[in-house]
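Q: Sequence in, structure out?
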Amino acid sequence: MTNITETLIFSGEICTIKTNIMTIRDLVNEKGATVIDVRSSWEFADGHVEGAINIPLEEIPTRVDEITEMKGPYLLYCRSGNRSGMACSILQQSGVSEVYNGGGLADMRIALM
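A: Exactly. Output:
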């Protein structure tokens, strides 16, 4: 089992997020997580995880209601894990539970192999 560790900075606080690859697989394959790609639409068009929904980071705050209508848990990713970490924080602050940072696109592809 491999761990992906990322250090993110939110409002001056350093947050370390550890995501277990097996957990990503479980979230998608066993729990039917909704996978959300928070990159721009052009990044998404260039390649994404199969079945992912594109909601760019800047749209997350205005689409919280739409997201909560989707089946949880919610697994978010971007290019490096930074934007998805910010999106997770926004959703959690909006009261959404079961939100997970899948890291970057490469991390997700490896985890879902």
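Residues 1-18 have pLDDT under 50 and may be disordered.
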